Amino acid sequence: MCLGIPGQIIEFVHETNQIAKIDVNGVRRNVNVGLVLPDGLKVGDWVLVHVGFALSIIDEEEAARTLKFLESMGQEFKDELDELMASQIE
Amino acid sequence: MKFVDEFRRRDLVKKLQDQIAELSAGKQFKIMEVCGGHTHTIYKHGIEDILPSNIDLIHGPGCPVCVIPMGRIDDAIAIAKSPNVIFTTYGDMMRVPGSDGSLLDARAAGADVRFVYSPLDALKVARDNSDKEVVFFAIGFETTTPSTALTLKRAKDEGLTNFSIFCNHITIIPAIKAILDSPDLRLDGFIGPGHVSTIIGLRPYQFITQKYKKPIVAAGFEPLDVVQSIYMILKQIADGRCEVENQYKRVVREEGNIHGLRVMQETMELRPFFEWRGLGFINQSALKLRPEFEAWDAEVKFEIPGVRVADPKACQCGEVLKGVIKPWECRVFGTSCTPETPIGTCMVSSEGACAAYYNYGRFSMAAQRRNIQVSDIPVIGEQ
Ligand code: SF4
Question: What is the value of pTM for the model shown?
């Protein structure tokens, strides 16, 4: 639950609930973007996601670095991705 | 887009390694990494192996699973066993032992305990099960607190009355202060948390440099980040500086996430004190829901025992969490306490010092070095 996973904003899903769809390694799930909306979040941006919430906007290079680092973790990252996959945030 | 390639990184690490050796020559340094994510990187990537032996990395209390006191696990289990309850939790908390088993054991005994990725998933469970009481076991530092806060606000907006939060959120600053005040430990500097700093920013760390005169560097989680922040700490000391520095500028902003801080403020307030495993009671170190959110507060909704439970005798997590002993110095490390059968919390989360060391560290060169040293010195009181 402490891993921050980078994802790319695909579309905004629900304005009042501040939900957007992100893509993480091909997995698409909804997350809350309320904490980064005031920073001017837009489709195509990369964000660092913790427990279903985008914590900060990051650049593409940082996203790629982080993803590579997470992949090097092996099982722990796989577990986290599995949990994300099971997520059904609306 | 061009990404920094592995070669350049290896070069950088080598260069930093030499600079660290030069800056630290002839002196002993104790540097604490506050955050469990850093502990994990340090062991997994063998950072200790590339540091000179006069630099000692001390693992701090920044693993939320590790510092939760046993009594709160018992409270969680009591709620989970209440009639008509679905108890939701992050997967990491499932195996943490309470005084009579874990949440996993409670589930095996018939309680409806489910793990969720996000508090918003717990909210969905509540929406889908309107005839049940759904409780979310909220834990973590400032990284996860805003998520709980936003979930809470949404539950209120939606008028979801069958949802509540068992709030165990803690704050990192009082824990760092408790460590600085502890007479057991003399530290030379801190590797500051990365993601927590995304929320709280850098200002709250100023007391560390101003009052305690210790440098702190907020750091990222890659091996290079950790090595670089160690270099930055040593450089500050060598230059006679003492500052809050930001190695993780890629993600952490000086002012933090103002919106996150605001929603925490709106929904939660400080508890007068809270128990931390190993560190005891620390004043104003945890959060509870504000009275306006009472209807979503599991501590109000349910009868909970609220009893303080002492750690098992064999467990030395307290000393590990304060950095007084190293994981392998615990009497039960790797024998009766393993990730499969944890006795203490530090063996449960992969960010706990004991689990990280058990999984990776014991195969490192640094461990071999240590074994040789350990066998040379008889340990008093050990049979
Ligand atoms: S080995 Fe187990 S009991 Fe000992 S300090 Fe580590 S987690 Fe705690």
Answer: 0.90
